[in-house]
User: Fold this.
Amino acid sequence: MSRYFSPSDPGPYDRARKFDVKDLMLEREITVTLSGQWSPEQRRGILDKILWGARSWARVYHPHVAALYDLGGDEQHLYIVTDRHKGRSLQNFLDGSPEGHSLSPTDVRILIEAVASVLQYAHGYGISHGELCPEQILLSPGRRVQVLRYAPEVLDLRTSDRLWEKLPSLAFYQSPQQTVGFPATQADDIYALGMLLYRLTTGAYPFSAASLPMFIDQVLTRIPDDVGTVSGYPRNVGSVIARCLEKNPEARFASVEELVRCLYPDMTLPTVDAARVRDLDRAALQFLQQKRFEEALSLWRDAVAIDPGNGRLMNNLGVALCRLERWKEAEDAFRKATECLAFDGYVYFHLGWVLWKLDLASQAQIVLKQAIRFQPRLIEAYLLLGLLTQGRDRLDYLQMAAMVRPKSRPVHLALAEALLSDGRQEEAYKYREYAQNLPLEKEEIKPRHMRIDGEDLHSSEEGEWPEAPPDDRGGGVSSPRKPPPKLPGAGEAQLLPSE
Assistant:
């Protein structure tokens, strides 16, 4: 967390908060969500569970998704770094409406189209959201929709001992299967989408109870009242909602596309043939392993054409171009990959290595330093920086490489040479003697691991949303009353309080 907040942070906080950060080094606006303080007992298990879901959701590259860049925790807090949160949550709109629903049927159609397109894309890759609720949906000017994975309100539920002190809205969007502890599936996302439609059309929830056991009993056994027909909505909206909220997941819609086609027959969701992309990706990887680089490159080009926003595919394309020594094209591919995978150290290392091959040493140093920042144990980046720098910097990078890989012969030989150039002959001879007793390795500076799709491979409609009500809930997540933390270094980033 020190990457984003200084040790002088005035916390701890008792509730989750978010801060909008201008990261000047990456030239990207991001939002850092900081959980409330947790105890050692809470910390055990919570971080692993959140990481498990985040690893999957980070692979959803969609224009309506707030990209997930980084996640971690320390002894007091969990922090999540995402694309800048734009707009106000849907829950803000619903809370501020006297009728409980402040969106017109046209607004709801735009909202459902955006959320459904996100779910359809994710489901195509076998990824479910699992916690879809109004807090996870942001509405911004121009009728833009942004879907989150860990909104501050939801993060509070994850890290709070007072989960049921006040019945959270998320509870209404959890299917009967999730309520009793089963992992989230695509059918649970369809249930949540149906509950969202119920709330938007009726302004209420189908269940209410005075205690947690009574609420769970209603979720598991009570059939929601029939919505019927609602003015301004398709005539079959009630039956669509009823099918989404079926207790048996097999009785729900088989896919988000089927749901949308039933509710809005004239709506066509943008589709990505995820199965085709997976097949192309796997076949390209096999070709790469067989050193059939041209065939691998052709297949990855086809995959990128189907899913152009997929940073992993773009990275794989760059790797294939590197194998063919087409450095300029590889540079373009890796630069595009960094736009999607802004905090992936391996992608930055690939880019830095290609820049070195293009004799762009100064640019390569900048990019390689970013790679180390995001992947502190990336030894190849230290080695390459040791080659590109001189004097004390060179020694520092090579010493770091030796710490990361203490039994690497190339590292210690390079360090011995650097010490000798610095006039430290005695130390240099010790490192050289130590290196000569280590197993022989190839000494060429090159990526020993090319990162392939998460694996290590050796060698709208115009208009505006209705006016949102003022956020006067006090001590809230959106408007922190305490001063925001300061970033570690001047000139690296500028921290602003969230809107």
Notes: The radius of gyration is 26 Å. The first strand starts at residue 17 and ends at 23.
